[in-house]
Amino acid sequence: MKFFTKKRVVLFLLFIFPLICFLLLSLGENNFTKLPIVTPNIIDVSEIDATKTVKLKDNVTIVCFLGNDVNTNRSGLFNLNEKIYKKFIEYKQFQILAIYPNGKEVEVERLKEEIGAFTDMQKWVFMASSKEEIETFYTSFSCAIPLVDLATPNAFLIDKDVNLRGRLNDEDSKDGKLFGYNMNSVSVLNGKLKDDLKVLYYEYYAAFKERNKNKADRKEVGL
Fold first, then answer.
1. Which residues are registered as beta bridge partners of 128?
2. Listed residue (115, 133, 104, 137) closest to 183, CA to CA
3. Is 221 domain-assigned?
4. For the chain, what is the domain count?
5. What's the number of CA atoms in the CB half-sphere (13 Å) around residue 93?
6. Which superkingdom does the taxonomy of this entry point to (predicted)?
7. What is the CA radius of gyration of the chain?
8. Are 35 and 203 in contact (CB under 8 A)?
9. Domain that holds residue 137
């Protein structure tokens, strides 16, 4: 019992215990800040963009599918604009991509005007494509829920390396996998998509800090 002297207990509480707590919190933070990849290496939308101006690579992208009836998910798009777009418009390399079938340009222009009435649309991207190309692109997500008339109420989160991000232990999903976020549910957008976007951006921020630290370390040793 002599080991547990008053002096040693005080030293433990002042120095060793805080260090252990810091290490445990650091490990927990690292686990928290990594958003799961649910489908790796999906097709980059640049492969089906006739204008060759739209791409997923090097961008954090929310993808949604408007379908043949553009108004099907109209309210969901307004939710997405209010709860997600306006909160992340200042984030770097952020965009929302809305894909629609060829021939729906008039309806889409009307929708853009409605969304843009009180919104800076600089990071909204609308892209037309053929039925076959839209289906091929969506199939690469490996999502079990099919498109209905080329539309879905779900929005999908794509990272800078063109991987589909989501959740592997989502309590509301049948098998735990969350591929997309229901745009018609404000609680899903607020409680899941917004949080997951923040996690993804923190993941990039942490990686950026680590790269800079490694560069500084190499510089110190003359590498």
1. 100
2. 115
3. no
4. 1
5. 16
6. Bacteria
7. 22
8. yes
9. 37-209
Separation CA 139–CA 159 (nearest Å): 17
Distances (CA, A) of 115 to 81, 86, 89, 128, 211: 8, 11, 14, 18, 39
What is the domain-level CATH number for residue 130?
A: 3.40.30.10
Q: Is 149 helix (H, G, I), strand (E, B) or coil?
A: coil
Tokens representing residue 99 in the block = 């894909």
Reported as a single tens digit per residue, the pLDDT across 14-42 is: 555 554 554 444 444 444 468 999 999 99
Answer yes or no: is 141 within a domain.
yes
Q: What is the pLDDT of residue 25?
A: 47
Cα dist from 46 to 57, 140, 174, whole Å: 9, 14, 32
Q: Report DSSP state, residue 151.
A: B
Tokens representing residue 72 in the block: 């099907």
pLDDT digits (tens, 9 = 90+) for 89-107: 999 999 999 999 999 999 9
Do the domain assignments include residue 164?
yes
Q: What is the DSSP string of 18-79?
A: HHHHHHHHHHHHHHHT-PPEEE-SPPPGGGT-TTS----TTSEEEEEEB-SSGGGGHHHHHH
Q: Which amino acid is at 187?
A: S
In a domain, 102, yes or no: yes
How is residue 195 written in tokens?
């949080």
Tens of pLDDT, residues 177-195: 999 999 999 999 999 999 9
**Count of C-beta atoms within a 10 Å radius of residue 60:** 20
